[in-house]
Amino acid sequence: MTDSKQPSKSHDIPDLIVTRNENQARFHGSWWRGKHTSFIPSKAELREPQALERFVLNGWLPASPFISRTTVITAFGSCFAEHITNYLHAKGYAVMGKHLNLNSHLIRFGEGMVNTFSIRQQLEWAIEDKAFPECLWFSASKEVAEVSPVVQRETRDIINRTEAFIITLGLSEIWYHKPSGEVLWRAVPAELFDEELFGFRVATVEENKSNLARIREVIRSVNPTIPIIFTLSPVPLMATFRPISCLTASTVSKAILRAALDEFLRNHQEDRNLHYFPSYEIVKEFVTDPYCDDNRHPRPEVVQGIMQCFEKYYCCATDA
User: Fold this and answer.
1) Where is 267: in which H helix or E strand?
2) The domain spanning residue 183 has which CATH number?
3) What is the DSSP letter of 131?
4) Distance of alpha carbon 9 from the chain centroid
């Protein structure tokens, strides 16, 4: 006896034709698509007006802009955070930056905290008075960022005054202090390297997700409703310390952070003041030939476009 409830064979179901404007795409019609299916755009569609909004920003934008020119903003994390700080400062926003000549590591070296561990450390140190070894924090010029009570108090004051955080994540390859297990901001200066003291590894998705949860928790302990905007830097690794190609290592490094961010955000959907701005995807998936000749830094016009997009949708004081 044949079961009359058996599903039809897939070849009996017509293909699904998706029409957007004058563009058509064909997909197999035999798969259940769910309630929120979003199909990949064609190259032609990515050239259309509003393509960025439709195919990259869709689902990530705030309900309305919320940053005014009097909103105190602190942006830090990877090197891409400096672009955000410079752009917003030039536009007249109240952003904490190097122009203020502050000693806080968030300001002086804020674009060098390239991993989630270092961001977590600064918040726990300033707000919760957690102690850290003095051999972890180095600037790009190899200056030691000291564990100073004066700097700690200034950092606490900045966090308390901040009304919107923009935190940019950079990479997942980390150097760590073996005796304590704590992670360095970046690599170890050659003259200070000691194999007994320092080691290298790749941080996991779970570790990064845990760090993001703690970052949110510490900020929320100061201000339960402050906007926190996370971004992922589109700047790839300059070099990898793994015995593989830099391009593949960089892909893994970014994928770990992006997966951690996505899980973290899904775990905190009730927090309406938690945001993700897809600068990484704009560069990697939307812009054609986005990088300078070094194949690492986005071209100035690409950075400008990203910043203009951010201002348009997050800032309520945009120029006419």
Assistant:
1) helix 246-267
2) 3.40.50.1110
3) -
4) 44
CB atoms within 10 A of CB 37: 11
| Tokens matching residue 260 | 């951690």
What number is the average pLDDT over the span 294-300? Answer: 96
pLDDT at 147: 87
Is residue 35 exposed (0-12), middle (13-18) or buried (19+ Cβ within 10 Å)? exposed
Give per-residue pLDDT as tens, 244-275. 999 999 999 999 999 999 999 999 999 999 99
Backbone angles phi, psi at 35, to 5 degrees: -95, -20
Q: What are phi and psi of 308, to 5 degrees?
A: -65, -40
Element (H, E) at 297: none
Q: Please give the tally of structural domains in the chain.
A: 1
Report the sign of the C-alpha dihedral through residues 7, 13, 15, 20, in that order.
Answer: negative
- 249 within a domain of the structure (yes/no): yes
The packing angle between helices 205-222 and 116-128, to 10°, is 30
Q: Give, for 109, the enclosing helix (H) or strand (E).
A: none
Rounded distance, CA 111 to CA 169, Å? 10
Q: What phi and psi values does residue 230 have, to the nearest 5 degrees?
A: -100, 140
